[in-house]
Amino acid sequence: MPFLSRPNGVQIYYNVHGPLNTTNPPILLTHGFTSTSALWTPQLSGLSAFHTLITYDMRGHGRSSSPSSPAEYTIEHNVADMLALLDLICRPNCKAVIGGLSLGGFMSLAFWKKHPERVCALIVTCSGPGFARQDVKEEWRNAALAQAEAFEKYGLAVLNPEDPGRKGEFHFGPEGLVLAARGMLAGIDVGVVGMLETIMVPTLVVVGEDDKQFLYPAEYMAKRIPDVKKLVVPRAGHAVNVDQPEIFLDAVLTFVAQVDGEGQGAKGSHL
After folding, report:
1. Closest CA to 14 of 71, 119, 84
2. Contacts of 47 (CB under 8 A, 6+ apart)
3. Residue among 47, 97, 105, 108 at smallest CA distance from 270
4. Which pLDDT score is estimated for 162?
5. Could you report how far apart the first and last alpha carbons of the chain are, in Å?
6. Can you supply one Gene Ontology CC term for this chain's record (predicted)?
7. In terms of C-beta density within 10 A (0-12 exposed, 13-18 middle, 19 or more buried), how is residue 185 classed?
8. What is the pLDDT of residues 187-243, one digit of tens each?
9. How distant is the alpha carbon of residue 112 from its chain centre?
10. Is the pTM of this model over 0.90?
11. Is the C-alpha dihedral spanning 234, 235, 238, 242 positive or negative?
């Protein structure tokens, strides 16, 4: 199994799918809180047909390390992990399609904020940009801390094994999820929401019509990001790519094909 070595002994589990010598931009996908890279299984073959597809388990999740220090679980640490993956797999300074679901969608926006020069397009799925109001941020933070307490008390039994979005998942234990909830999940701040108007790359915003918590954030982003396409997927909840895998895949393939077309004038390979 491939692992990326990070500072302080942290190991990030990742997989690379598809061709390595394509001129199309690579795609880097980030899963949500309590999920793993297995989330993307329904889209692996489709998205990797003409692109290098990179999936990984966030620190504290799946097969990646769960460091004992709470200081290792920040948005900044995960963004740095994403950059390190691109640097490992792609040529220096390559641009990629950066996408994710739920917490992974926020991570994608945070990555653009930190490294806009490495992004050629964004895919933000069932997610939001953070909070414009401090009181709403506090509500989110309290909910994240409550999730951490639940994992401390009940362990992995908190996760519903019957959830179709959890097919193929594996976690070593709940310890990393506890710290990820207190760090990365609770750490979503107001820094990203204020920069949506400055996103100058094509952006696809996807949300399930039954994912009530994220319908408004999706509309909020669609009104502020200049070059945006928004899709509300019928008969789909939070795991929209699992509930409606073909609709989601078709939307992403159409989107990245347009991105590929815009980049055909550039010389050289992305990898």
Report:
1. 84
2. 17, 18, 27, 29, 40, 53, 249, 252, 253, 256
3. 97
4. 67
5. 22
6. membrane
7. buried
8. 887 689 999 999 999 999 999 999 999 999 999 999 999 999 999 999 999 999 999
9. 12
10. yes
11. negative
DSSP per-residue string spanning the chain: --EEE-GGG-EEEEEEES-SS-SSPPEEEE--TT--GGGGGGGHHHHTSSS-EEEEPPTTSTTS---S-GGG-SHHHHHHHHHHHHHHHS-TT--EEEEEETHHHHHHHHHHHH-GGGEEEEEEES-----SSHHHHHHHHHHHHHHHHHHHHHGGGGS-TT-GGGTT---S-SHHHHHHIIIIITT--STTGGGGGG--S-EEEEEETT-HHHHHHHHHHHHHSSSEEEEEETT--SSHHHHSHHHHHHHHHHHHHHHHHHTTTS-S---
Tokens at residue 84, please? 């390190």
Q: What is the 3-state secondary structure (H, E, C) of 201-224?
A: CCEEEEEECCCHHHHHHHHHHHHH
Q: How far is Cα of residue 269 from the mean position of the Cα atoms in its chain?
A: 24
| CA atoms of 128 and 186, how far apart (whole Å) | 14
Q: Are 3 and 13 within 8 A, CB to CB?
A: yes
Cβ distance 233 to 243 under 8 Å?
Answer: yes
Instruction: Give the pLDDT confidence score for residue 219 in this predicted structure.
Output: 98
Q: Which domains does the chain have, with CATH numbers?
A: 3-262 (3.40.50.1820)
Query: pLDDT-derived band of residue 22, with 50, 70 and 90 as boundaries?
Result: confident
The position carrying tokens 């994912």 is 211
